[in-house]
Fold each of these.
Amino acid sequence: MLVDYAESLAIANGRSLEGEPAKLIARALEIDPKNPKVLAFAGAVAFNRSDYKSTLQYWNTLLQVEPADSPLSQKIRGAIVRVRQLAGLPPDADVAPVASRPK
């Protein structure tokens, strides 16, 4: 799976998702836009670029497809609170989920 390869490359590059890992994640998102792992990584790419709106869109989409009680959903819900703070949004601000490629 492309996202697994992107993760391996990122680990080998000091945990950086920039460059080839980001390209692979974008391609994986085109292939499977509802895959929770792909959405998690797409949100991380957007977060690292300070694109908080896209981060929230990817992660809100993830919450729609991942079971609410999963460890990933719990972790993402906590991260969303922090991203909203960084974006200057109230904790309950609604950001529509959208699955599109990282910029």
Amino acid sequence: MQCDCVLCLCQIEMAQKLLNSDLAELISKMRLAQQYVLTSLQQDYKKQMLTAAHALAVDAKNLLDVIDQARLKMH
């Protein structure tokens, strides 16, 4: 049981780190999109921002799944 708890915590930490990295990437892409809002590059940066937002959403769902799995293992 102790080993399962450590494994669950490790998985949660890894998912959180990935989520934090994705959030930093989204912030970076949003800044670029704002910087180039009135230029011909606007659409490219907007696509990059939306791609980063999608990755963040997928990894947020993954974190919730990992937490749910850990909760189920505890009971």
Amino acid sequence: VNTGLYYASVAFRGVIENSTWNPAKNSIVVNFNVGADLREAIKATTVGIIGEKGSAMYIGGVQDASTRAQDASATAGRAFTLTGGKLKVVGTDPSVGITLKSSSGKETKVAEDLWVTNDPSKLTFIIPADLEDGTYELKITTQFGSNSKTMLKVPRSVMKTIYIGTAPSGGGSSSGGDGGLDENPLG
């Protein structure tokens, strides 16, 4: 079959013994080859680079362990869970970690002993008890690569606006849905 875009042909492989098809020895193969029209279309194709590939790291959902709220509100001194992709916090770069930056610009790094779960798809940590109610920029910075054996040379980060205390109506930033959170993030 020749469509101009491609040429397709069917071939039978193997020797037919005693006029009987034997799937163990015989097979049907379909071959496709590029046709002249498709070759010309490929030559005329232009590629537009629209930017760098986005990071596979993302926050898909959040939950406050104290209130079970999924609206990006958090309770100081209580566990807070993030779900998403490539969230595991690892690496030796000084920027690696979990930070909370208040609307006034004060940055608080969450100590490692406050990390409860540190997995690629789930990160749970205790919100420092001394943080005042208000709007914060939560930033996760890691050198986690595609698996536990691959570390990135340059750290990458993901951010989400959260609220310690009660979230304003409308909730947090629009960086995802509920992320498939369990009703009880602590198990």
Amino acid sequence: MAATLGTVTSILQLVDTALTARDYIQDFRHAPEERRTLLSEMEHLRPLLKELHDRIQSNQPSGQSSSYSSSIPQQMEKPLSDFQKTMEGFQQSLKPAGTLKDFSRRMKWPLWGKKESKEYLGKFEQFKSLLNGWLLLDIWDSGQQQRSDHQDILKSVEDAADEQRQAHDRMLSLAILFKSVAY
């Protein structure tokens, strides 16, 4: 669980770094459509990753073993690790090659060709689909757990009501018995 949380945190940092770099690109308006789509897709990934991060973190009390009922985080480790490598490669392509002039030239978007942009876009879209699926399954798991908890509570209330009825019936029987003994 901690490894999954660390991977998600790392991916979030990589996405934030790439989006920050995008904010500094002066010629972003002139970027080819594929590259704008690529960064837009990354922007859409960020809230999903943040939600996943928050869910994993909120279900992992510090100093205790995880109370997370879902097996989803364990199933996500490999795809998350793969996506982390993709993001690290993407971030490497944004790093300056040497001088500020080289960096400036790279930030004017001769970063990749159309093929590389589509490749990254495909990976981002695939991961976003996986992430949406995981979050939906997590919601479903939570709903099932709440349903089970609700049924357990109802059963407890019914059992308590039965015990109270039985106690009431015993009290009535005793009252009738005492009444008949008293006369």
